[in-house]
Amino acid sequence: MRTEAEIRDQYEYLCEQLESEEMRHDRVRMLFTHYRRALGWVLEEEHI
């Protein structure tokens, strides 16, 4: 299982990638967006 710090790092990395010009393809953006949301839910559940 990954630590909270590892999950946060990955979440921040995905946010940066979504903002980059290279990730403007709609399907790639959609995939990263769903993955980012899932990581966000994991982080929220850890703090509830």
From TrEMBL:
It comes from the Archaea. This is Uncharacterized protein. It comes from Halomicrobium zhouii.
